[in-house]
Amino acid sequence: MSKSLILLGIFLFLNWNSSWGTEILVQKTRGGFPEYCFVKKLSVKEVPYMAETLALAIIKGRKIVFRNLAEINSPKPGPKNFTPDYFEKSLREAMASRMHSLTPKQKEIWEDFIYAAKLAVAINQERINLEGVGFKYFLPAVWARQTAFIFQAKTGIVIKQAALKYRHPVNRPDETEIQAILSIERRGLSDFSRWDYFGKQRVFRYFKPIKNKAFCAKCHGEPRGAKDPLGFEKEGFKKGEIRAVISVTLPVEG
Ligand code: HEC
Description:
Elements: H1 3-14, H2 47-67, H3 69-72, H4 84-94, H5 104-122, H6 125-128, H7 140-155, E1 158-162, H8 175-187, E2 192-198, E3 201-211, H9 217-220, E4 242-251
Antiparallel strand pairs: 1-4, 2-3, 3-4
Helix pairs in contact: 2-4, 2-5, 2-7, 4-5, 5-7
The structure holds heme C.
């Protein structure tokens, strides 16, 4: 039996009596699920391109944070160059090739994303500029998690970094995300998507994988359970294995 199947088995066993489907797409609170509202919706035609654009933007944004980790984690005094304006410019440049074909409504959602992405960098400025501190816990995954939180508050569109061996609880995969990860892994797909319902709301769910690279092994690699440089437990990912999928859920109007 493959490792993925064993993991799926363990997941199913642990979750056998919990709620299924898109319900765990959002965090369960005491007393039930929060009242849920998709603020921005797109037509059936506009949805797939937008979902892919948002997933790519998370991947590119993560890379920009990675490229700047040395600067971010430098204990030198004085403000760093990792400013909200620098981040916005870098992200817009990285995504420029996808901007030509956006419809006005897609463009509006894209600007909401830029707003969230930039705000996530802005609210971390004091942290990033702490003097005499090396590691500041501003990582690509943290930027992506905080951006997704702000973006969801503004638009209702859900973005997650869903993983079978997840570190942060908001990234716990739901049934569809597990299926996406396993299908991408087994069939070597570059992405995975599905039309679905969230309550009565029709949604498009899109998943794009992030691979585990040699650099990531320091914190996420083998041996599983050993301490990473931050003192957290490593997940035991192998090089090339799917670390997570960027999961985007977009509502359809009508
Ligand atoms: C310095 C240690 C460190 C390194 C190196 C590192 N990560 Fe992480 N990673 C973390 C931490 C800590 C979290 C949890 C962040 C949070 O608070 O949401 C995390 C979370 C993630 C998540 C979110 C999913 C989850 O499990 O919660 C993804 C995806 C991820 N990392 C991918 C990568 C990839 C890909 C690389 C290599 C390119 C990498 N990481 C390198 C420490 C690291």
